[in-house]
Amino acid sequence: MEIVMDGLPIRGRGAGIRRYTYELLRHMIALGRHDYYISDLLLPLEQTKLSPTKDAGVFEDEVQRLVARMPRLWQLAPLPVRDFVNRRKLRIFRPDVYFGTNFFGLFEPPTKTAITIHDMCYIRYPEATESYMLRHLRKRLRHDAHRADAIFADSEATRHDVLEVFEVPATKVHTVYCTVSSGFRPLDERPDLGRVRTRYSLPERFLLFVGTVEPRKNLVRLLQAFDVLCQAPSFSHGLVIVGDKGWNDRPILDGLRACRAADRIVLTGHVSAADLPVLYNLADALVMPSLYEGFGLPVLEAMACGTPVVTSNVSSLPEVAGDAAVLVDPLSVESMVEGTRRVVTGAELRDDLKRRGLQRAAEFTWEKAARQVLDIFEQVSQSVPRPHDTDGTRSVIG
């Protein structure tokens, strides 16, 4: 079977969807069952075939070599132009499946298509979605969801949202959990830990937030909760915020400046993939009070590192955390303060969360996810093409 993957997310710097695409592709290739190609690099598809390998280094080198060959101006091309070019290449190449890992497929797919819908934030929290992306999602995602032969959701919570909003057949929406690479684990290499602490000027003890600085992450309330915690003389922690600036970050930065404990807050910006597990290991707890998450990868990353987690009791976060985190109301600063204080002051609770977190994280593997996806691809490739309905969407296979 020939599978073409959307190459657009792979060009990113390491955000969640980039990691999802990269790790899923790497582990599917390692299973050795099919042939894989990368689209959207403005290269002939035949030249993007990836070598069958289980070696992560070989895979990384090959992907980077292909990405480096992409003309720089191509990534500036409007989405309809890229869509047209990719569609044309697929008509000629005729793969078995095209896989859009970043929400969208192709407008008129000439082949069997699967897409991953990572979250439905633009429906649940439209005010927390960038205006350009909001327009694009509203205009396009329903169309692509109905056209797709299979839809993957990162969690049962997201799957439920997809079914409720798009009213697609339940049989074609599948939950495939994300996971983390083997680099996220408890670390004992003290020199490495010390170098990272020095590189980012980290306080001796700190709470950690990991994610893009944008409204959905609920950082304004987190800053308010941290300000309250800092009023207690016994609380000596700092707050380290790891992640790129996102859209509409001004209220968050204003909130930081208004924070009385601003001198105890460190903004690292983007950090390398090698440094991120070290940051988790150095932190006393991850605090992730998001308003909505399709999965919430930092929760799993922290648990895999043995770091206690405080997170929201909404959307997919309780589903991912299981019984291995302290859950709080993301709309309540008081709830955040109380939950965080329990973890910071309770040595027995921290030890219990570490133990439970490591057990919980071990339940998620990329190999399991890759096998699930490939099983669905094999079913899709053998299914009868669906005729078009009068409303322009595909009917359900009976």
Verbal overview:
By secondary structure, this protein is α/β, with parallel strands linked by helices. The protein folds into 2 domains: 2-179 and 366-382, Glycogen Phosphorylase B (Rossmann fold), CATH 3.40.50; 190-361, 3-Layer(aba) Sandwich (Rossmann fold). Helix content is 43%, strand content 13%. It has 15 helices and 12 strands. The strands form 2 sheets. A 6-stranded parallel β-sheet has the order 2-1-3-4-5-6, sandwiched between helices. The chain has a 6-stranded parallel β-sheet with strand order 9-8-7-10-11-12, with helices on both faces. The radius of gyration is 22 Å and the shape is globular. The model is unreliable at 388-398 (pLDDT under 50).
Summarize the structure.
By secondary structure, the protein is an alpha/beta fold. It has helices at residues 16-31, 56-69, 79-93, 121-124, 131-147, 156-166, 190-199, 219-229, 250-258, 275-282, 297-304, 317-321, 333-345, 347-361, 366-382, and strands at 2-6, 35-39, 97-100, 112-117, 150-153, 173-175, 206-210, 238-242, 265-269, 285-288, 309-312, 326-328.
Write the layout of secondary structure elements.
Elements: E1 2-6, H1 16-31, E2 35-39, H2 56-69, H3 79-93, E3 97-100, E4 112-117, H4 121-124, H5 131-147, E5 150-153, H6 156-166, E6 173-175, H7 190-199, E7 206-210, H8 219-229, E8 238-242, H9 250-258, E9 265-269, H10 275-282, E10 285-288, H11 297-304, E11 309-312, H12 317-321, E12 326-328, H13 333-345, H14 347-361, H15 366-382
Parallel strand pairs: 1-2, 1-3, 3-4, 4-5, 5-6, 7-8, 7-10, 8-9, 10-11, 11-12
